[in-house]
Amino acid sequence: MKKIAVLTSGGDAPGMNACIRSVVLTAQRYGIDVIGYLHGYNGPLKQEYIDLNASDVANIIQRGGTVLHSARCLEFKTDEAAKTAAANLDELGVEALLVIGGDGSFRGAAHLANFWSGQVIGLPGTIDNDIYGSDATIGFYTAVETAVSSIDKVRDTADAFERVFLIEVMGRNAGFIGLAAAVASSADHILLPELFRTSDDEMQNIMNHLLCARERHGNNSYIVVVTENIWPGGVTALADELSKKSGSESRPVILGHVQRGGSPVTQDRLLATKLGAFAVEAALAGETNIMVGEQDMQVVTVPLEKTWKKQKALDPYLVKVATDLFDETKIRT
C-alpha cells in the first residue's frame, strides 16, 4: 500500500485532530503517503485535499475541532456524486479512505464502496456515542466533561436562588451524554429518549419527584438534565410548563454547541490515537467496509452496516443508578 486518504465528516468532535495525527504518524511508519480531504465528503467530490506528513500534525493532539474541517454533503447521497469521488480517488492513487465521523458519515462510506474498488474504513468520531460496536466514540468523554462542568456552575446559582434549572444537552436520539452528565453532576432528574414515555407522564413524574425532594430538603435547587429534541417545543416550553404547575421559578439552559468544542480530555486523546493507528493497520491487512472500535479495552473491527443497523444500548446499571438510587420517592425515611 502506497497511499491512503483521511477525512472528517458530519459534526465535529474533540479528538478528531488526535485521530488524524495518529493516522499520519502510523502511515509514515509503514512508508505510506497520506492525503487529507477537506470539508468532509466535499473533499473527494471536488478534489480538495492537502498532503499530510509529520510536521503537518505536530501539536494538534490537544486541539479541538478538525484541521481538515468538516461539513455535511447532501449531494454525496447521489450515485453520480459517489462515482465522481471514486474517479477522483483513483486519479490520486488512493487505495484506502479512512472516514472519521458518525453514522451518517459511515453510510456515505458504504455508498462510496458501491462505486469504488478501494478500501473504506470508518472511525467513530461523534460526541453522541451512539455508534454500535464501540464502547465509546471519539469526543464523547470531552462532551460529558463539558456538560458536567456547566451543570456544576449552574448548580451554584440554582442553590443561591433555590430555583429549578433544566439543562439541555446534545444527543439527538441518544441519551448517552445526558445519562453520564446527570449521574456525574448529581442531577435530580433526567429525561432521556430511551426512557421517555409521554409528555404528561414525564411531567407528572417530575412534579412528584420535585415535591418529594422539597418536602425532605426544603426549597433547595433542583436540576433536570434533558436530552435535546425530546420535549415538544423544547426545553424552554418545558420550563414554562413546569413553572406553572409547580409554582417554582424554572429556568432553561441550553448548552448547545459548546459541548462540541474545547481541548479533548485524556480519554478521547487515547481512544483517538489507538483507533487511528489501528485503522491504518486494518487497511494494510486488506480490511474494507468496516469500522474500527474499542470493546473491553481491545481494538476491534465491526462491519460498517452493523454500526447503524443495530442500536447501541445505554449502560443498564448506570440507568438503574440514575433512576433508582437517586430517586427521592424511593428513599426510605
Looking at this protein, list some descriptive labels.
333 residues; alpha/beta; Rossmann fold; seven-stranded mixed sheet
Topology:
Elements: E1 3-8, H1 16-29, E2 33-37, H2 42-46, E3 49-52, H3 79-92, E4 96-101, H4 103-113, E5 119-124, H5 140-161, E6 164-169, H6 176-184, E7 189-191, H7 199-217, E8 222-227, H8 234-246, E9 250-254, H9 266-284, E10 290-295, E11 298-303, H10 306-309, H11 316-325
Parallel strand pairs: 1-2, 1-4, 4-5, 5-10, 6-8, 6-9, 7-8
Antiparallel strand pairs: 2-3, 10-11
Helix pairs in contact: 1-9, 5-6, 6-11
Describe the structure.
The protein is α/β, with parallel strands linked by helices. It has two domains: 3-139 and 264-309, 3-Layer(aba) Sandwich (Rossmann fold), CATH 3.40.50; 141-260, Phosphofructokinase domain (Rossmann fold, 3-Layer(aba) Sandwich), CATH 3.40.50. The chain has helices spanning 16-29, 42-46, 79-92, 103-113, 140-161, 176-184, 199-217, 234-246, 266-284, 306-309, 316-325; strands spanning 3-8, 33-37, 49-52, 96-101, 119-124, 164-169, 189-191, 222-227, 250-254, 290-295, 298-303. A hairpin with a 2-residue loop joins strand 10 and strand 11 (298-303).
Characterize this entry briefly:
By secondary structure, the chain is α/β, with parallel strands linked by helices. It contains 11 helices and 11 strands. The chain is elongated.
